[in-house]
Amino acid sequence: MHISAAGLELLKKSEGFRDRIYSDVAGFRTIGYGHRLTPAESYPDGITHSQAETILAADIAIAEGAVSRLVRVALSQGQFDALVDFVFNLGAGRLASSTLLRYLNAGRYNDAAWQLLAWDHAGSRELSALKLRRESEFNLWSAISPSSRAA
Predict the structure, then answer these.
(1) Could you give the CA distance from residue 129 to residue 2 in angstroms, rounded to a whole number?
(2) ∠ CA(141), CA(98), CA(28), 5° rounding?
(3) pTM of the model
(4) Is 32 a member of any domain?
(5) 122 pairs with which residues across the strands?
(6) Is residue 150 part of a domain?
(7) What pLDDT, on the 0 to 100 scale, is given for residue 26?
(8) pLDDT for 145
(9) 36-77, pLDDT tens digit by residue?
(10) Secondary structure of the chain in the HEC alphabet?
(11) Buried (b) or exposed (e) across 9-32, using 16+ Cβ within 10 A?
(12) Distances (CA, A) of 150 to 42, 81, 88, 92, 111
């Protein structure tokens, strides 16, 4: 599977675009659409929108691969999109060790969806932007997936 237009729209809206290096809420050096810079990456003059789109496509492919590798049950497009956004934002390790994934792989789709909402903190602080992002993921998951899967 690949992220849909709706999933991509959520991700881009949540991340926003910045053409210059900045520190994200966790203090990581970031550019474009939430791309965490590696020590080898340097953009002293910033990046263009086109460069950011190319970087974003590569970052999304990594998140898609992680979701495909970790999830052992069938997903609707909305569920896949929500999980790709989650992994893009928090990393595959967070999904891999989460109750969300445990519930999902046990076929507890609704319980897994509710777990998305728990990931709205940076450290011990609840952040309104993360709360809104998790609610958007929940809505994307729920709008497209049939509730009968939760049974």
Answers:
(1) 25
(2) 90
(3) 0.92
(4) yes
(5) 125
(6) no
(7) 83
(8) 43
(9) 999 999 999 999 999 999 999 999 999 999 999 999 999 999
(10) CCCCHHHHHHHHHHHCCEEEEEECCCCCEEEECCEECCCCCCCCCCCCHHHHHHHHHHHHHHHHHHHHHHCCCCCCHHHHHHHHHHHHHHCHHHHHCCHHHHHHHCCCHHHHHHHHCCCCEECCEECHHHHHHHHHHHHHHHHHCCHHHHC
(11) ebbbebbeebeebeeeeeeebbbb
(12) 46, 18, 25, 24, 8
**Residue 15 annotated to the active site:** yes
Residue 124 falls inside a structural domain: yes
The number of distinct structural domains making up the chain is 1
Range of the domain at 49: 5-145
Average pLDDT of the segment spanning 83-108: 97
Which of 9, 15, 53, 137 is catalytic? The answer is 15
Q: Which two tokens stand for residue 107?
A: 């076929």
- pLDDT, greater one: 125 or 84: 84
pLDDT at 149 over 90: no
Q: What is the pLDDT of residue 91?
A: 95
Question: Could you tell me where the DSSP H helices lie in 91-127?
Answer: 92-96, 99-105, 109-116
